[in-house]
Specification:
Shape: globular
Low-confidence stretches: 1-17
Strand content: over 45%
Strand order of the largest sheet: 1-8-3-6
Number of helices: 0
Helix content: under 10%
Radius of gyration: 12 Å
Structural class: mainly beta
Largest sheet: 4 strands, antiparallel
């Protein structure tokens, strides 16, 4: 069963994400991303505090992609961030692996 954690994220020439992210995702996951690239990229980011964000190494792409495994510790926030492109729109979900 996948978890619809990420809503549509749209980039119009800059970085846009779903704000503070989600924090109820402890576990091991597979990231599934799809949408209209529009020349932009989408990437998974994690944060211990909802303010300072770090790209999850390897979990990014300029087209539809999947990435796993993703290990998320308790209390860590996650979000999908987009950068660049014109009219790009992305959707993503996390599916549990364990």
């Amino acid at each position: 069963m996948s978890s619809p954690l990420f809503t549509l994220a749209t980039a119009m020439g800059g970085a846009v994400s779903n704000d503070a992210g989600f924090s109820n995702v402890t576990g091991i996951w597979q990231l599934l991303v799809w949408g209209t690239p529009g020349g932009g990229t989408a990437k998974l980011q994690v944060s211990p505090d909802g303010t300072n964000w770090i790209d999850y190494d390897g979990a990014s792409g300029a087209a539809a992609f999947t990435f796993s495994p993703i290990y998320i510790a308790a209390g860590v926030r996650v979000r999908l961030a987009t950068a660049g492109g014109t009219g790009s729109s992305w959707n993503a979900t996390l599916a549990p692996l364990a």
